[in-house]
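Format notes (please read before filing issues)

Several people have asked whether sequences and structure tokens are stored in separate files. They are not. Every record keeps both together, in the order shown below: the sequence lines, then the token lines. Line labels are part of the format and must not be stripped during preprocessing.
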Amino acid sequence: MTFQMKSLMMKLGRLELQLKETKVSFFNSITLGNPKVFTWVLVAFASMGGLLSGLDQSLISGANLYMLADLHLDSGQVSLVDSLMPLGAVLGALILSPTNEALGRKLSIIVACLLYTLGAGLEAGAHSVGMMYAGRFILGMGLGLEGGTVPVYVAECVAKKFRGNLVSLYQFNIALGEVFGYVVAAIFVNVSGTWRWMLGSSLLFSTVLLVGMIFMPESPRYLMHKGREVESYSVWKRIRGVSDIDARREFIVMRHLVEQEQEEKKRR
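Then the structure lines:
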């Protein structure tokens, strides 16, 4: 065994001992047996954020055909309804960095889901143009925050060799969401309260994502960045495993890179 390998094993051994002495919460103790399975479940739930973005683009197009009479909208108001979502997304993108730094990746995605769910609920239940405006803007904030957080979260959790393909799954889900949106719009086209059902249907998807993310772990890199090394190692064991030498080495490399980044910040 080389000196580097011995050093690697010693570092991981110390973390393993510290982990055994640490009280782990219920959510941090959830495992799915095989770390690879856990990783795929994590990616599947997180990437559902792209589904929400694609859904909205399709659903609002269908809803616009039916809500004009109910809300007494003129052409200018319809344009504003359409534009308030991207305006909200701009604000969501602006708060992306401080929110990720303060809350972490997982909680940022949960906050984004809450904003999206609140916005979608206001849209579906809107009885005035102001309520619709508020719903569109809040929903957009959720999409802006989620759109920048999910790819980072996935990239920090998956193995390096799979990172590119799994991060691109988010973009695939945007396209898939657009298809689902048009299918949903077609299903409710002859139902009483057509546009409310269309817009409200996205609540199902946002709720599934919200509940699923509650049971997902925080990004191990973020935890390491915050000095929570043992917790970072615990998450790594669950989603990546430490039985494989490449996984062990990648954890140590990640730790080293985070330490370098922190040292560089101190020099500035």
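For reference, the curators noted about this record: The mean pLDDT is 86. The chain has 13 helices and no strands.
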